[in-house]
Amino acid sequence: MNQASAGHLLQLIRNGTATTRGELQRVTGLSRSTVAHRLDQLFRAGWIRETAGDPVDAPTGGRPSLRLEFDASHAVVLVADLETRHARAAVLDLGGAMLAEHSGSLMINQGPDEVLDRLAQWFALLLEKVGLTGDAVCGIGLSVPGPVDVVSGQVVQPPIMPGWDRYPMPDRMRRAFAAHVSGGGPEIPVLVENDANLMAYAEQRLGYPDCSAFLLVKVSTGIGAGVVVDGEMYRGIDGAAGDIGHIRLSDHPHALCRCGSYGCLAAVASGRALAEQLTAAGVPTASGSGVRDQLAIGQPDAVRLAREAGQLVGGVLATVVTLLNPGVLMIAGDLSGPPFLTGVRELLYQRAMPRTTAYLQVVTSRLGDRAGLAGAGAMVVESLYAPDRADSRLAAGAPRE
Ligand SMILES: [Zn+2]
């Protein structure tokens, strides 16, 4: 039954396995009339469209078969990427194209009530800008700089998000959406995920679709890692995987970390730590993005500290890479320039076995500051149009027969 469902046909169309009625019959073994019936459900929902295929599809000179495709414009996704002092929000179509974007100062330590309310106001303005209302939105995706239990959508013991521990973010986001966005209903799906996971997800899909083990390390205010295995985010059993910023280094016992422990990697090698070290060296710097600004102008202390930080991170990554054997290690975030990368390479290749790094590419981000938004959009679309979810949404929206 499931094999034959409309949601399953949609998946075959979306991933390119079968894009004509004939191919769908062959791949599924369904009859012509059953395929037609299932496709009608998808057409009525507005999820797919049929376009004239290329003449090359009809080599005998007959009528080219009609090609089925996912209609990426039938709805939009609202996404936001929260950093500690700054946030981005955007309206994306279902193919990930950015229709409108807004970014600005938003302090995460103001707490979830204030922050999510402001985000909903941003969403309202963005929708207005593209001439849409809340009815057009199929889901909301939020990227946060902390560990997330994706089942509940709650952040769990986030060291740099004071006041957010176990806060019911999806509920609060839904209420804010209904309050601020015209046509915005209280039932909107809201998905929350860790920022490094989403960045890894987006970068792997875009730039390295054939890489079966992909590792991204984000070094901004904090340090986190995202792992994508066989195209799926690897979260561990409850979303704590990849929080490498709080691995203890044995030789920095007096460095106090935001998590309350001493000697964490983030306490000595994060953007926040470097901002403090730069300030102490006489270059007043407020945050990871301040360090980024100093690096951009080649400030010598910033360059030296970034390389040393890269070495510390590279030492930890030697273990991570030995465990995962990734094909790509991507360094992203505020510190991800040449000095930091040099430091990472120095320690990584020195400490990891040659066998683990023989085919490893160490690279920087392609999507840059938009990786988190792109990942959040892809997460929402993949979740809402997965076969089972698609079927239940079709059933819920279908008129009674
Ligand atoms: Zn820590």
From TrEMBL:
InterPro entries linked: ATPase_NBD, ROK, ROK_cs, WH-like_DNA-bd_sf, WH_DNA-bd_sf
Pfam families listed in its UniProt record: ROK (PF00480)
The organism's place on the tree of life at top rank: Bacteria
Family per record: Belongs to the ROK (NagC/XylR) family.
Protein name from the UniProt record: ROK family transcriptional regulator
